[in-house]
Amino acid sequence: MAKIDNELQELLNNKEFEQEVKRAKDRFRFKTFGEKFSYLKDSSKYFRFIFHLFSILTGLVFVSFLIDTAIQNIYLSFVLAGLFLAFWEIAKSILLANVFETYYRVNKVPFGMAVLTMLLLCGSICVSIEGAKKYYALQNDSEEEIVKDFTNKRDSLINYYESRIGAEKKGLEDFKASVSYKGKINLYNEITAKTVSSYTDKLAYLEKALSESIENIDGDYKSKIQGDKEKSSFDQFAFAVLSGVNELIIVLIVFFLVYFDYRTAIEGEEILAQKELEKDDGKDEDLKKILELISANSIEESLINKTGKQTSILTDGKKNKEEDTKKEQPILKEEKETTATIGFKVPKRQTSKPFERPGIAAITGGTQLSLGFGDEEISGKVAVAKPKKRRKK
After folding, report:
1. What CA–CA distances, in Å, run from 159 to 120, 166, 171, 268, 378?
2. Domain ranges in the chain?
């Protein structure tokens, strides 16, 4: 167990292990499109320059040849051709970018600009193919030169064999003249027969060799011409494919660079909008807290004001009641003897007098009569009629 703990501790202390873990975590963390493909964007810029340069070089020979036919200056022709092709490639790249930008901006392909861009692309392919043709034509011998070379070889070979054949014929004629008798040759003589046969075999061999040599030269010539044509056709096809692939790669690189900026802008807007939303949410929370505090303080102040108002009302009512009581006391004293007051109030005690019942208090002769059936008091004044005096008749 201790050994395992030591190994684990060594692993944790290992810097390489820590870096490897960080690298693995970084691989699986969320990344935006711009962060994920930033290296591809940087490399695409350099590769685009390389492919544009290749397109310029493949068309340089053909364009410089056309310019040289007009100005008759090969060095100046190369300079002017290079400037013209560089302008061509720059215009093509800008138009391509504008086509893709317009599509992403308004969701529509600009027809005129797209047609002009396609013409520039096709023109680049054609110029590259013609440039390849001209380059291989300069590197390889032309058909006229091949014909001239083979004609010289054929003529020299014919001259060689014809001279040898002529020499053998002359030798045979001389030998016949030396051994003939009256224009006739004795072929029964073994030496004469062998000599004549030797000359005849040499002449047949030389004539056959001449014929075979001519046939071989003609065959080599035809093979050379056919081989050069096939090679030229293959080279032209290969350069056509290569030029087409080169232009396609340029289109894809420009498209990727535009799409990279488009995705970066979209994701950037979303991220900024999310941040603004989070800020607004934070502001709303702060505002909500402030409103809650203000509301709580307002309620507290309202309660305090309401309580104070009620207290002041009760105090004022009590004061008014006391003042009314003070005002009514002298009046009650004056009318005590002549009035009786009937009021309803809760009885406080019961009486033992026979004419008095619970809750009723009767006061006669200037006393107060109260009927108590509730908390409120309803008072009224009853005047006691004085006896009228009789008039004396």
Report:
1. 57, 10, 18, 86, 169
2. 40-287
